[in-house]
Design brief:
5-stranded mixed beta sheet, Beta-lactamase, 592 residues, 5-stranded antiparallel beta sheet, Penicillin-binding protein 2a (Domain 2)
């Protein structure tokens, strides 16, 4: 900006020459400068007022437009805005195959304290202990009177407890909404469902996450909002599960067993209709895992999936079926059962002396260790291993439980000829009852491999393992075991049960076997002529004491329990009692 001098030299000299007062020139220039400054200030002020007016016009226009939009919209509750990721609490239901609820959600509240807002802290602590006896009064007083500004008191409380706390009138005790997992059937199917816990937690919500069973295996599905709350539908049948658990529990107590498990499976689809492991627990109040001792003593231990046992003579049908499939024998082939069978320094004996020979069918009916061991010698260790692999007995099961993939069968370090001989009658290889159920389904369903599943609808049929002829012969052998063999207590009128018993000495933790402790198993199928279901019942350390001598074999312990389960559950499954069809060669033509 160019400023004009107040006393320009040329004008001063000119004024003096004319006799004028030079100071008048300065006063005039000063007046002109002030007028220019005033005009500039006025112009700036007018511009600012114009801008401010435009701003106010836009603001009032925006507010007016928003008010018009709100007046024309549907009323709704305002939502609180906050930073951070949201906690997704909603979790889908779990149902059985018929839509009955196994796990659902329940709206409840949590209880927390903000000590700075509390008035009568000691009284509040005393009253809280009266409402919640598991709380420590001294600890509460210490927390309330200390420097803490926030503490959880109870993560889940009932409406009655909430009302009692509310009646205390203590402003520092506050409630937060919670969604908890509810299992309305208590301990029924506890090992399948597993349980849940809280993950991320806030005052107004908490994340419900699976910790075991299908709750953990399908955690992502159950928490995914994209599923629209669609329930997870399992293959279990709640009525069959309830009846089976009651009978198995009674059988476990009657047989003085330490534990028990049962599995019922559809032989064609692999659907698990019921699975029970005892002792069990209530997932609404899931116990803590054992930190010391034998984990199998914990009620959390799932014997059906996590328990791997030598399953004894139930394996014999696999050796006979493989020998028939390879064309080595027929059901009527006579097999040398003269004992003892010596292999090096080892001797293999039968429970009874069955004479010098038995037919292949009678090797199963009488349960001859020597007979199946001789068949294993003919088959060979490598072929035996291949066949058992096809049956799924050497790998973890594909069951949809978080515990299943980690449970591998225990195999011999060196699969020698001796190993093949002992494995043929169920010793030297440990597998779970779930493995056994799937393998038996494959043997009796026509020879197609079965993968167990907990999802309704089952799995697609697998590859053929044995022929229909071999499967039919195996079914007849299993039927004969019940009709005239070691499982005679397993007969259920109208349902034509077939099966195989297995009694294996229980191994000691540090090697060797107990002399008076066994694992008793009955692997059954019904109806034997047209199989629909396989039922496995395993008792841990059973002993039947109704006679003069204690009896531990499966024929006296596991078989009667399985028979009662079939008797009670077959009608629930829609199976009608029927007359067993007779073989064609037993029919006689009659001319009128």
């Amino acid at each position: 900006m160019i400023r004009t001098p107040l006393r320009p030299l040329a004008r001063i000299l000119d004024a003096r020459a004319k006799g004028q007062n030079p100071d008048a020139i300065e006063r005039e220039n000063l007046r002109v400068r002030h007028e220019q400054m005033r005009d500039q200030s006025r112009g700036r002020a007018e511009g600012r007022l114009l801008i401010l007016g435009a701003v106010f016009l836009m603001a009032f226009g925006t507010v007016g437009a928003r008010m018009g939009t709100l007046s024309a919209s549907t009323p709704e509750e305002p939502r609180t805005a906050y930073t951070g990721s949201s906690i997704l609490a909603q979790r889908a239901d779990i149902t059985d195959r018929n839509g009955n609820i196994l796990a659902t959600n329940l709206a409840t509240h949590s209880l927390y304290a903000q000590p700075p807002f509390m008035i009568e802290k000691e009284r509040a602590a005393r009253k809280l202990v009266e409402i919640f006896p598991d709380l420590d009064e001294k600890r509460l007083i210490k927390d309330f009177t200390g420097k803490r500004k926030f503490l959880w008191i109870k993560k889940k409380i009932s409406p009655e407890q909430m009302q009692q706390v509310h009646d205390l009138g203590e402003p520092g005790l506050m409630f937060g909404p919670r969604e908890m997992r509810l299992y309305p059937n208590g301990s029924l199917a506890a090992h399948v469902l597993g349980g849940t816990s809280f993950g991320r937690e806030g005052v107004h919500s908490a994340e419900v996450i699976g910790v075991a069973g299908v709750e953990k295996a399908f955690d992502s599905f159950l928490r995914d909002p994209a599923n629209g709350g669609e329930p997870l539908r399992l293959s279990l049948d709640l009525t069959v599960q309830a009846a089976t658990r009651r009978i198995l529990y009674g059988g476990m107590k009657l047989m003085n067993a330490k534990g028990a498990t049962s599995i019922m499976m559809d032989v064609h689809t692999g659907e698990v209709i019921s699975v029970v492991s005892l002792p069990d627990f209530d997932p609404n109040d899931r116990p803590r895992p054992l930190t010391t001792g034998d984990q199998s003593d914990s009620p959390l231990f799932n014997r059906a999936v996590q328990g791997v046992y030598e399953l004894g003579s139930t394996f014999k049908i696999f050796a006979v079926a493989q020998a028939m499939e390879q064309g080595l024998i027929t059901p009527d082939t006579m097999i040398d059962t003269q004992g003892p069978l010596r292999w090096g320094k080892f001797r293999i004996n039968d429970f009874h002396n069955y004479g010098p020979q038995l037919s292949a069918t009678d090797v199963i009916v009488k349960s001859s260790n020597i007979g199946t061991a001789r068949l294993a010698q003919q088959i060979g260790a490598e072929d035996q291993r291949t066949f058992l692999t096809k049956l799924g007995l050497l790998e973890p099961t594909a069951l949809e439980m978080v515990e299943a993939p980690s449970i591998k069968p225990l195999l011999p370090p060196n699969w020698s000829e001796l190993s093949a001989m002992t494995i043929s009658y169920g010793h030297g290889l440990s597998a779970s009852p779930m493995h056994l159920a799937a393998a038996y389904s494959t043997i009796v369903n026509g020879g197609y491999k079965v993968e167990p599943t907990l999802l309704a609808g089952g799995r697609p049929r697998g590859e053929r393992v044995i022929s229909e002829e071999t499967s039919a012969a195996a079914r007849d052998m299993l039927r004969q075991v019940v009709v005239r063999g070691t499982a005679s207590f397993g007969e259920v009128e109208g349902y034509h049960v077939g099966g195989k018993t297995g009694t294996a000495d229980k191994p000691k933790p540090n090697g060797g076997y107990y002399e008076d402790k066994v694992i008793a198993t009955f692997a059954s199928v019904f109806p034997a002529h047209d199989p629909r279901y396989v039922l496995i019942v395993t008792l841990d350390e059973p002993v039947e004491t109704s006679g003069t001598e204690p009896r531990r074999t499966a024929g006296w312990t596991a078989v009667p329990v399985a028979a009662e389960i079939i008797r009670r559950t077959a009608p629930l499954l829609g199976l009608r009692p029927e007359i067993e069809p007779r073989p064609v060669y037993e029919l006689t033509r009659v001319n009128n």
